């Protein structure tokens, strides 16, 4: 199958839908129902709109900081669409599309970025871990969930994301090593968006590809055009099947691009060239998929405009609601959900922070 046949040491990248929205690899075209294709596109569109509005809100001083997603929608939605409801999602912090497709609300997403702890609270059946900012620390957690699934004899798969920069962290290697040895049911998606803040991918590692890192852990690694939603879906679907059948983990490198800034505190014009951004804008995953759906007779520009308006309105209302809720978080909430019971170290941090807010100890 597609994953077993792939050799990450050769200069190859899996691609199904080209820039013009045409199918270039019929042989690996995944079977996806029309309804699901539309659902995937709609989530991409909602993600794009919610992302650009978040940026505006931050610029208006209505939100403290934000990490834009623009350009990475296919890498996220193509992969998450390949898991089932009972499977786990372990995001990093730039996974708005994956989050929405998993059925987690936009309100919760905005609450998180607004600084409200409720943005990190989930019900058990949502099967998602909160966003994490410490780079790659989510991966050992994802493998832990996979290990638990094996022990319990459950068939759920855990899909986790990490950035290209995250692959230089110890946790990435520890997680993949453990996962390979214990054949945990994990799928790791590297969103290689070219930059780790201002550090380009070439300076992150001397490896020719990030996918090839999988070989040293005895697991398959596969490089995919991350702006091609069909390729992302096809490959992840196979990786999920492998994981569910007890064949162990897969590492997927999604080659994509962050069209915006790293976060709203960053100015990418200082470290990257306009031409690079312009070139990637032509590979926009949203327009590419839209063209495909229109050619297939499943979508139209009229439907698109109508939905854009609807979403735009809904997103505005959602943010207004979040602003109303505000940061009603209790200070203790920030400390008490990491472990089932706060550790002495966390108790100490909480007490010291409490004093600080009360105007005492600095
Ligand atoms: C352990 C750790 N070290 C440093 C940072 C500061 N930091 C925040 S984002 C980032 C770069 C992440 O790049 P990448 O993994 O490629 O993900 P991207 O932001 O591009 O999605 C760094 C170094 C951090 N959050 N955590």
TrEMBL record:
<dbReference type="InterPro" id="IPR029061">
    <property type="entry name" value="THDP-binding"/>
</dbReference>
<keyword id="KW-0786">Thiamine pyrophosphate</keyword>
<keyword id="KW-0670">Pyruvate</keyword>
<comment type="subunit">
    <text>Heterodimer of an alpha and a beta chain.</text>
</comment>
<feature type="domain" description="Dehydrogenase E1 component">
    <location>
        <begin position="41"/>
        <end position="325"/>
    </location>
</feature>
<comment type="function">
    <text>The pyruvate dehydrogenase complex catalyzes the overall conversion of pyruvate to acetyl-CoA and CO(2). It contains multiple copies of three enzymatic components: pyruvate dehydrogenase (E1), dihydrolipoamide acetyltransferase (E2) and lipoamide dehydrogenase (E3).</text>
</comment>
<dbReference type="InterPro" id="IPR001017">
    <property type="entry name" value="DH_E1"/>
</dbReference>
<protein>
    <recommendedName>
        <fullName>Pyruvate dehydrogenase E1 component subunit alpha</fullName>
        <ecNumber>1.2.4.1</ecNumber>
    </recommendedName>
</protein>
<dbReference type="InterPro" id="IPR050771">
    <property type="entry name" value="Alpha-ketoacid_DH_E1_comp"/>
</dbReference>
<dbReference type="InterPro" id="IPR017596">
    <property type="entry name" value="PdhA/BkdA"/>
</dbReference>
<keyword id="KW-0560">Oxidoreductase</keyword>
<dbReference type="GO" id="GO:0009083">
    <property type="term" value="P:branched-chain amino acid catabolic process"/>
</dbReference>
<dbReference type="GO" id="GO:0004739">
    <property type="term" value="F:pyruvate dehydrogenase (acetyl-transferring) activity"/>
</dbReference>
<dbReference type="Pfam" id="PF00676">
    <property type="entry name" value="E1_dh"/>
</dbReference>
